[in-house]
Design goal:
With 427 residues, the chain is an all-beta fold. It has a domain of 176 residues. 0% of the residues lie in helices and 37% in strands. The protein is built from no helices and 31 strands. A hairpin with a 2-residue loop joins strand 16 and strand 17. The termini are far apart.
Length: 427
Amino acid sequence: MSVPSAHEFHWQSLARLPSGRVYHSLAEVGGQMYMLGGCDAAGRPSPALELYSPEGDRWLSLPPMPTPRAGTAVAVLGKQILVVGGVGDDQRPLKVVEVYNTEEGRWRKRSALREALMGVAIIVKDGRALAVGGMGADLLPRSILQQYDMRKDVWALLPPMPTPRYDATAHLLGNKIYVAGGRQCKRTLKVFEVYDSETRSWTTLPNMPCKRSYGGMFWDSSGRLCLLGGLRKGGGHQSSKFTKNVNIFDTNQGSWLKSEDTVAMKTKRADFASAFLRGRMVVAGGLGHQPSVLDTVEAFHPQKRKWERLVPMAMPRCSASSIVIRDRLLVVGGVNQAPSCSVSRPRHAPSRGPAMLRLEAPPCSVSRPRHAPSRGPAMLRLEAPPCSVSRPRHAPSQGPAMLRLKFPCIVSHDIANGTFIEINMQQ
């Protein structure tokens, strides 16, 4: 299969985001992107729901969620978006479940989770949502696996995972749900387990070759799980240990490829955007051993068996949520300053600005959360590990690290058309 050349990419500007939010979730229905919830500039969970239409290059504000929340898990069931758990106004996990019907344009409250959870992984199989793990109000990880039937509006318990955890990555392949990594309190896990929906049983697979957090994780077209880069050891930014290793699990063989059969990335990095697009593994931005946030982009060429530099991002960024729509990797938000041990309030609140973005426009902000925002009306607490990387993967603890934040934009890596697209919010 031919893959896009590294020389085919360039930058282009598109419509602004209508509001500045952090810790929001993304969903795709009918080729359009929905942004749900998140936090406002003061760190308060938001009920906002907004739609971006690629065809019209415009944003539309939709009816807000009944329950303000951040860091929620979302699943698309036909034309409906299921919103599960997350963090509420009191900075604690939620058990509330709500559904937005994209055709009717209205929200409905549905049966709640059995307990309040955040850090839930969710997938869809046969029109039903399966929620895996999570963290409870007591800050302990859960092993729960629960299935939601939209027609009956019922959550059913399935056999629990062998290993309790939250913020794991779940992927569906055939009748099997693969659950990789995750956390227990501050501890990063190498655990890799699979649930067979036909036999209703769990199997423990070979552990991931190394512990890592804030790395890239996705499936390629051959049904192989790819783990890219990440943070191997936390600490202050200068003492953190980043990796450029690539590990691949072959589901057909049931084993990890040997190190000599994989090719490491060019740059050690963590907290970056990544995806498998048109036959190429792509990574963008992130944090590394450099004193500043990365703007570099690279993609793996399977025929040449090497990583190639692509056009850099218009602005460096780390800690960004992303979604793939029509062979485009949409990277939403991002932090543009390297982490430190300092405490700082966000410097810029959202405001009106020009409709089109110059490539030298002001940098952007943080995106998708993995835990509750900090207490305190005007700050966002970003931890795990303190003073190292920005994207949180566990609950608040003592000694938090803070980052200076600016407000978000979207970067789209358009493989099909060979372009990078940036969608700026109002400045």
